[in-house]
Amino acid sequence: MQLSKRITGLTGGGSDGWDVYYRAKQMVADGMDVTQLTIGEHDIGTDRSILDAMYQAALAGHTGYSMFNGNKNLRDAVARRVSERTGVKTTPDNVLVTPGGQSALFATHNAACDQGDTALLIDPYYATYTGTIRGAGAVPIAVEARADRLFQPDPADIAAMANGASSLLINSPNNPTGVVYSGETLQGIARVCQAHGLWLISDEVYDTQVWSGDHLTPRALPEMAAQTLVIGSLSKSHAMTGSRLGWVVGPEEAIYHMGTLATHTTYGIPGFIQEAGCFALAQGEAFEAQVAAPFRRRRDLVLGLLAGQTTVRAIPADGAMYIMLDIRTTGLSGEAFANRLLETHQVAVMPGESFGKAAAGHIRVALTVADERLADAIGHLLSLAGDLPRESR
């Protein structure tokens, strides 16, 4: 029997971008000690108080079917959070609860795109973006955010590719680069979306991890609430990656129809997890700052270790739990460098090429291990980079 082109073509016929990660996992399975700096997984785990709330909710009977679009109390909590932090009036009817941000990406592209439509996204992009767009039946077209602009997208580049497109996907704070899009960048993007009638899909799952400046949601820009779909999640803000609890915020009509999609796909999220989500959100900004603090500290640690050498250069990491490093002076691609680092020093990082073309010659380091182990890994990375011939030699 033949499988559908949609399911077999999710990766576009190439790698899914996770080859180094898979190699590192196999090395660990074979008994080797590998420092994993590949994925955005907190090293602290979900806080015990949230797990207790989840457990008590299950014991209280929240184990049956839940509302397919999310229980009212959780949609209320998300709406309050969004209203307070963005200044944009948001009601529960503007909120769809999803099984994590990944499901929200799928739902938003189903809402914004018909079969065969062009869906724009910014390169570098998170590794699942293109496959998610293909899974929704659309055609992903990448707009490069250039390294010489420190990976801030140029609205003019987006406008040049916007004719006939249905949507634009952006992500700030950004994974993989750690870049936070400036107000000027977001205002330019908003103008392009308005001029070309694009749905703007804004992935904001790292909104609590901003180290420099302030987080700005494009939904708060003039006239943009009607054409913006914002993706949020408790995965990064509350170290609840395995709980799979996210949301979409957008216009009521779009949320209503994405709720219908949920009825026919996810069929809702377990009630005891939603109750734990309500508890987590009620802990407030101080709790979220506590979860985020190690990543700010580790970013500063890495920047300090990079000072005084010129072989490896850091892209300004203003947010998120990653730092992107420019290793082009070594003469290796990001993929070749990452594989060499894994083979010779047992340190696993993600090649820039895993996230599109724009970050070729870069690597992404996840700040997700204890400070001492991270410092040791960066030392190995710099040692390898220093041993390789520079372009100027």
TrEMBL record:
Transmembrane segments: none annotated. The keyword Transferase applies. Pfam families: Aminotran_1_2. Residues 33-380 form the Aminotransferase class I/classII large domain. GO terms for biological process: amino acid metabolic process. The keyword Ubl conjugation does not apply. Keywords: Aminotransferase, Pyridoxal phosphate, Pyruvate, Transferase. Its cofactor is pyridoxal 5'-phosphate. GO terms for molecular function: L-aspartate:2-oxoglutarate aminotransferase activity; pyridoxal phosphate binding. Its EC number is 2.6.1.-. It catalyses: L-aspartate + 2-oxoglutarate = oxaloacetate + L-glutamate. PANTHER family: ASPARTATE AMINOTRANSFERASE. Belongs to the class-I pyridoxal-phosphate-dependent aminotransferase family. This is Aminotransferase. It comes from Roseovarius litorisediminis. The gene is aruH_1.
